[in-house]
Give the backbone structure.
Amino acid sequence: MSNVPPWGCPYHGLIQDNQLTLPNGDTLPCRQPNGFSFERGHTHLVQVPDAPETTRTIDELAEDTASGRQWLDQALISGNQIHGVYIGNGAMIYIAPDGSRWLVNASLHGSNAGTTASTVTLRRFGIIGGEPEEYTYAVPVPDLSAESAYHGVQPSVVQVRMFHAHPQGKAAVFGLFAKLVNYIEYAALAWLELSLSGPADDCLIGIALIRDAATTDGVLAELDDFGSVSQFTRWLVADSVETGSPASAYPACSDSYRRDITYSISSDSAGSIQQISGILTSGAQVARRVQQGIIIGLLYTEMGTLQEVTVEAQLERVITGGALTITSTPYVLAYNFTPGDGVCVQQITQEQNGEATVQQSGTFEYTTTLVVRYGGQEITRQSLKDITNSTSTFNYTRSASGEPTVALGSRTSSHQSIPGASGTSSIEPGPGWSSLISGSVRGGMDSRIYALEISAIAFWASSSNGEVVQGGQTIRLIRLSNGLYSFVMIRRAVGEFLSRYTYLADAGTPSGPVVLEELTTFSSSSQSTNPVPHGSYNPITGQAVRAFNPVCWT
Amino acid sequence: MAAPTERTARMRGNLTSREQRLTESLITGLQELAEPERQPPKLSRSEPRGAIPSGRGYAESNYQPGTATSTGGGIASPLIEGEVPPPAPDSNPTQDMTAEPNLDRLYWPQGLKSSDGLFVLPSIKELVMRDANGAKVVILLADPDPEVAP
């Protein structure tokens, strides 16, 4: 480079509230990128291969620093703008083989899964003066109907959006996004790639499906049987034990004897009073389910290599049942014989009520871990563990009249969520409830993973049928922008109307783990009112930021 | 201190007749200079006339063409771009175009790139002009962003 001073746009930093904050703290008015929530922080590195080398003297550097200027040999497309100037949605800069630069706009961005062709326009970029050259191509789009059908959504509701661009604009990844049930943002169903090669006036352009819906959904590895818990069935039986002799043994018609009815647990239903269910006590029952390779992003490296951002959801359930115990009081009858009118009269009186209490304690540990990887390397993770220590009791009572029998059940549990809180709960399902610990097994946890919501759910307590939720906690992964992935913990405690949304500090970027400022808000269950934060990652500096207002690096 | 007339008389006594004549002449000249200052004529007071009205300014140049007729004789200003004037427009074929510039330049292929390489300022390599005598003048400019040899 000669001694010609550098020129261009030396103003780089974070755009927030339509202000660009420079490294020296000064601010400049700047357009805020717009688009879908997660697109407002999108960044695409632009690396022109023959960008000049900028050399600055010590004095010049000091002057640059003081004035907040940075002469970079790279640039960022910030959402739908570059250097604060709007360039259209789904736009990138293509560096042709001869070094010329072209602004590429593809109508694929903003289309739906029913589209069959995309218009791709190349317009000369960066030349000062004159009307730029322009070339337009019609590029066929592969049939995407199967991708939307995979998740049971209509092609018309699937949004095709540009997700990331190659540093020289040789390609761009487009995601097929749709809002699925309970998904906090648009989920990616499948991925397309737009590729360009050759000169602008004879450009070879293609659109290919590079990750179909099945691939994007990952691979389920069910290591153990997650769907069932081994349980036992036992019966409460009564045994009569007579002491003394029968009436025929009392010719004098005097004296008395007693009859004791005792209660026990039997594996034989003969003579049973009540069926009882519980979980097996032979050690811990471990169930694991792992869903690997759920593709939530596709990004180009600085060298132009495509890398996947994936999530691995690990679910583990460990149930440990204690020994089944019974404590009982025999039901006692007294028989008295007195002479009557030529007969011997037998009177039966109750000496003692009968009662049986069957009890089992158990521990339930649910651990869900979400691991985010970029190019196979872990960049962040979050775990949610829910531990429940529960004691269930089954009561059987034989009343004084000797006629009705009453069965009552109850369960007392203590819960601990990590991270989160702890609490206690108790349930009294009422007469006829005969299931012990097995009632605590929560069925929702293992099914949610399929919904691409990618959430771990831990309930503090639920009834035997899982309908009554007394408090809950969820962790979800949030794609804040194409380069920033973080988690939100949603918690609603018993009696609270609003849910607490805690956007956790740990997050991941292509550069690795980052720690963000934790954000908290409260919201009703209506997702439309949830304040979803925005985030942006700077591939040049590695910086990442998250805020409730849109942010984007430039 | 003696009066000026006494000092003049003493001086005269010490001089020759020629010197005295010269001295007299000088004294006469000095006395004329030392006479009371004349009062300058007074200017009459003028009434305010307001601001100067706007108008187009102009200047007349006393330009004299150079004498050079070919190279080696210097360049006659002004220089006008283009070795030859541009053709007269079709609408006025007789229009005198001799003083009109005619784009006549070559650019360095790479231009001057912005620091990020995205934008290019055109960089002139060769600029052809003609001087006031119609002589060709070629200006060669350096490449501001030369290729670095591998």
Q: What stands out?
A: Chain A has three domains: 1-87, 91-217, 221-439. The radius of gyration of chain A is 35 Å. The first strand of chain A starts at residue 14 and ends at 16.
